[in-house]
Design goal:
about 475 residues; alpha+beta; Pnp Oxidase, Chain A; UbiD C-terminal domain-like; 12 helices; 23 strands
Amino acid sequence: MDTLPYHDFRGFIEEAKKISEWRLIEDADWDGEIGALIESTAELDSRPMLLFDKIKGYPVGFRLVSLAFANYKRTALAFGISPDKSKLEVVRLLARKMKSGKAIPPEEIKSAPLMENVMEGDAVDLLKFPAPRFHDGDGGRYIGTGDCLINAEPESGFINAGTYRMQLHDRNLLGLWMSPGQHGRMICAKYWKQGKSCPVVVTFSTDPLLFTLAHTKVAWGNSELDYAGGLMGRPLQIVRGPLTGLPIPAGAEIAIEGEVPPPKVESRPEGPFGEWPGYYSGGTLGTGEAQPVIKVKAIYHRNDPILEEEAPLWTGAMKIDGNPMAGILWDQLEAAGIQNVVGVYNHSPYFTVVAIQQKYAGHAKQAGLAAVSSAAAARNGRYVVVVDDDIDPTNMKEVLWAMMTRVDPPTNIDIIDGCWSTPLDPRMPPDKRESKDHTNGRAIFYAVRPFEWKEKFPKVSRSSRELREKVIAKFRNVIPFPGT
């Protein structure tokens, strides 16, 4: 697949229906039911994409989609990679495509389907969209999970795009949670320091490549919009925001223009919200302090809009299958001189697996320590597992088997403290959270045959991978093997 087979988010959804499972769900309630369905579906091996219509209290056509990237075939589609590739091949090809892509500035166009409906001033009404309340204990409805916030650095003018959660406070007011150190917050802070509000654009259901980049670390001063164009092989089309002058990606379903006042001028209690670690942020009282808000001045949306909601899921479920960050880590390990890396995979932000073909004593330790310190895995982690090349790093059952049979706890586990974490870490002690010491510990498991006597290690009795693949292909009509 040399070019993208879609031109906007809606086109991506239609192509995704052709290559993987999806389900149309009608008459679901935005208050709790949709969230529970998304979580339950994310725990399935197949992880079909969910398209909700006829949502309780909303007209036909005001739809919601979730788990758009929860199957690696759909992630491959988003990047223009053949969905027939294996999961590990997709991870590697994603990273290579991101690495080789050149920045292409956006192309401004005069109009787009996004502008079919315009609400300004007193007509602004975010309650028009079926934003869900995901969990029983959430502090409200969240319209912003599959979103992209765009703002401009006031001095250089460089455009940043980031994904941040947004609580629906009122018809024209959104709560905004941005972790310390996020580029979008750093740009806002420059305006706040001058006593000014920061102009912003937010798109919902935006171009898939831009959405992927919006929650990937791109170096300060480099625009995700330019990188998206490079990955597409063509400029990202934008319309110019009439109120802010900021670029609005034309392929989005819904967009808003507004501003973020200095928190000392206006802020609201935000949350609690069931975040990706599987716990409510900040315990039972939300984030623990008032958070910034977005004052919405205009809304633009397509006819029959599709609202993307990528709910943060506990670590046993899967939101993005074939996450490109694993491939980026793979490249970074090789750039650091780690030899014979044969696979890297992230089972969650907390759990990374690195497969190597051992060549020398200390090889596994070198790989594990490098993984903990590499930029792609330095934040929010908990465990790194190093396995031999006979283990498929994408297969958790094989990884756990290696941990159970090749790890000697007293000698094959390293504990490292003082690593970069996040305020959302549920295991962070209250005193550290209060002092803003957002660090945690990491464990590295060396689930490999001891190099010094690996030739004497008991031989594996399982059938070879080649034979297993052969018989699965032969008998796939008889036995419903996963992925066939």
